[in-house]
Amino acid sequence: MSSKFEISDDADELNQEIDDTNFPTRSNSISFGVANGNGSTGSLNNGYGPFANRRRSSSIRRTESEMTEEGENGEGGTENGDLSHQQQHQQQQQDAAMTLDSSHQRNNENGENGSGTGANGSSVIAPGGLNRARPTPIRTISLSGHEKCTFHHDLELDHKPSTREDLLPLMSKSYRMLLSSLGEDTERQGLLKTPERAAKAMLFFTKGYDQSLEEALNGAVFDEDHDEMVVVKDIEMFSMCEHHLVPFYGKVSIGYLPCKKILGLSKLARIVEIFSRRLQVQERLTKQIAVAVTQAVQPAGVAVIIEGVHMCMVMRGVQKINSKTVTSTMLGVFRDDPKTREEFLTLCNNK
Prior knowledge:
By secondary structure, this protein is of the alpha+beta class. Among the domains are: 165-208, GTP cyclohydrolase I, N-terminal domain (GTP Cyclohydrolase I, Chain A, domain 1, Orthogonal Bundle); 219-349, GTP cyclohydrolase I, C-terminal domain/NADPH-dependent 7-cyano-7-deazaguanine reductase, N-terminal domain (GTP Cyclohydrolase I, domain 2, 2-Layer Sandwich), CATH 3.30.1130.10. Helix content is 42%, strand content 16%. The chain has 13 helices and nine strands. The strands form three sheets. It has a five-stranded mixed sheet, sandwiched between helices. A two-stranded antiparallel ribbon has the order 1-2. Helix 6 (164-181) packs across helix 7 (194-205) and helix 9 packs antiparallel against helix 10 (282-297).
């Protein structure tokens, strides 16, 4: 006995593929509305829900023997067939509702048991006993001696980096990698010890990081009833441009107006050495020297002038070999009193 539910093998395979993609086969229109009685918010126009649609192949297929048995028992009429079709729809909807209920129940049980997984795969406990995702805070490492160091750009004078013995191996390795990146053979005779030499040279160029103002002064601050200008000029200065890691050099002139305290003359040169032996820009170097002298003897005023030649302008870039950069910092009376400032500038310009 033939049946309208009978499906050929080819059609059965095609329907199975369609069902696997969750595509509605009995209607081309899909309506999304409010939740119905079984908890589903989306349904097909023909009454199939998203879960029931995937069961379509298995639920509507009726074997020929079952249909024959129904026919023999007088249950195969049109009225009984429609009733059976409605029962199938109801059963499918009930199955879908049971599936949703069991899914919600499992989610609730997981929440009550305090088990939750965050976005990063970690489980954490939120208020109320429920687990919620909470990112692990990033740990920061504080190196000994670097607590007050802000990229070496500030006026901190108590910076104490690692000892040279600790820094040399890593710096030498970095220089070796740099030479290799340039295409050089680091094993040839002329370059065998170049990485170590370069590392030691860079440590010397930046030795100011290891020095403090207190160490440089070494107690050479003296009480003296002197209130006239003191000027030490043409102090040689060598530093490293922090933008290109090439040298700049020049001369520094320092003047201050004492207030009952004077500084050992050589200590002015040592202050220049502390701040110039770092990665620098000339503008900042000028101000750091002036501030350090102020901290040392609390004078009525401090004036600093630097005239420098920058190799980043001479041997690269614009390549202006005769250019010089002049910067100045005036503090206290040197800023406020034009006559005092003029006297200092006159003394500096006299040869």
